[in-house]
Specification:
Number of helices of chain A: 0
Low-confidence stretches of chain B: none
Helix content of chain A: under 10%
Mean pLDDT of chain B: 94
Strand content of chain B: over 45%
Distance between the termini of chain A: 41 Å
Structural class of chain A: mainly beta
Number of strands of chain A: 12
Mean pLDDT of chain A: 91
Oligomer: heterodimer
Number of domains of chain A: 1
CATH superfamily of chain A: Immunoglobulins
Order of helices and strands of chain B: EEEEEEEEEEE
Structural class of chain B: mainly beta
Largest interface: A-B, 26 and 24 residues
Low-confidence stretches of chain A: none
Number of strands of chain B: 11
Largest sheet of chain B: 7 strands, mixed
Order of helices and strands of chain A: EEEEEEEEEEEE
Largest sheet of chain A: 6 strands, mixed
Radius of gyration of chain A: 14 Å
C-alpha cells in the first residue's frame, strides 16, 4: 500500500523569501507523484506532476519539485513567494496502470505569506 | 471550458434530513469520485465510479450513497446526515485513457449538519 506524509501542517514565510514544502511517500512499487494547490474557497488544481524522466519538474506559478527516489521524497520549492501563493498544498501519489485508479493524498501544508 | 460543477456550494442542514449533493462534468470522463476534506486529514475518498452503473467504496463510505446512471453525473446522497458528516466535499474526475491518475476537481460543497 502507498502512503504520503507531509511533514509540516503550516509554513509561514515572508514575501519574496524562498520556500520548501516537504513530502515523503512510501510505496513498494513505482509511483506517479503530484502536487495540488487549493486556493481559499476553491477546489484543488494540479500544480505539477512527476511521471518519469528528469527528476526536476517545473509547474505553474514558478513552483518546481524534485523527485528523489533514494529518499522517497518529492519536495516542492519556490525561490521567491508572493502573497498570491497563500494556499493549501497537497502532495499525492498514484500507482501507474492501476485499475483501482486511486490517488493517495497527504494531509496538506498550509502556506501563509507575510508581507 | 472543461468543468466539474457541484451543487450546492454551501448547505446547513439538521440531523436526519436527507440531502443530495450533485456533481456534473462536461469532459466525458469515465472516472468520477467523491472526497471529503477535514482539517489535518487531507482528502479521503468516499466513493468512486469507473463507469456508468459501476460504483465502489472508497476509504470512508459509511453514511453515504452514490449512483451513476449517466456518465456526466455522480450525485452524493446522505440518507440521514449526522454532525460527523460536517465537512468540505469535493467531486473529482479523471480520464481513464490518460492513466496518470491526474484528477480534475469541482469547487467544493461545504456541508454543516446541526
Amino acid at each position: 500500500a502507498q502512503s504520503v506524509t507531509q511533514l509540516d501542517s503550516q509554513v509561514p514565510v515572508f514575501e519574496e523569501a524562498p520556500v520548501e514544502l516537504r513530502c515523503n511517500y512510501s510505496s513498494s512499487v513505482s509511483v506517479y507523484l503530484f502536487w495540488y494547490v487549493q486556493y481559499p474557497n476553491q477546489g484543488l488544481q494540479l500544480l505539477l506532476k512527476y511521471l518519469s524522466g528528469s527528476t526536476l519538474v517545473k509547474g505553474i506559478n514558478g513552483f518546481e519539485a524534485e523527485f528523489n527516489k533514494s529518499q522517497t521524497s518529492f519536495h516542492l520549492r519556490k525561490p521567491s513567494v508572493h502573497i498570491s501563493d497563500t494556499a493549501e498544498y497537497f502532495c499525492a501519489v498514484s500507482v501507474p496502470y492501476s485499475s483501482a485508479s486511486k490517488i493517495i493524498f497527504g494531509s496538506g501544508t498550509r502556506l501563509s505569506i507575510r508581507p | 471550458e472543461a468543468q466539474v460543477t457541484q451543487n450546492p456550494r454551501y448547505l446547513i442542514t439538521v440531523t436526519g434530513k436527507k440531502l443530495t449533493v450533485t456533481c456534473s462534468q462536461n469532459m466525458n470522463h469515465e472516472y468520477m469520485s467523491w472526497y471529503r476534506q477535514d482539517p489535518g486529514l487531507g482528502l479521503r475518498q468516499i466513493y468512486y465510479s469507473m463507469n456508468v452503473e459501476v460504483t465502489d467504496k472508497g476509504d470512508v463510505p459509511e453514511g453515504y450513497k452514490v449512483s451513476r446512471k449517466e456518465k456526466r453525473n455522480f450525485p452524493l446522497i446522505l440518507e440521514s446526515p449526522s454532525p460527523n458528516q460536517t465537512s468540505l466535499y469535493f467531486c473529482a474526475t479523471r480520464d481513464m485513457m490518460e492513466n496518470t491518475g491526474e484528477l480534475f476537481f469541482g469547487e467544493g460543497s461545504r456541508l454543516t449538519v446541526l
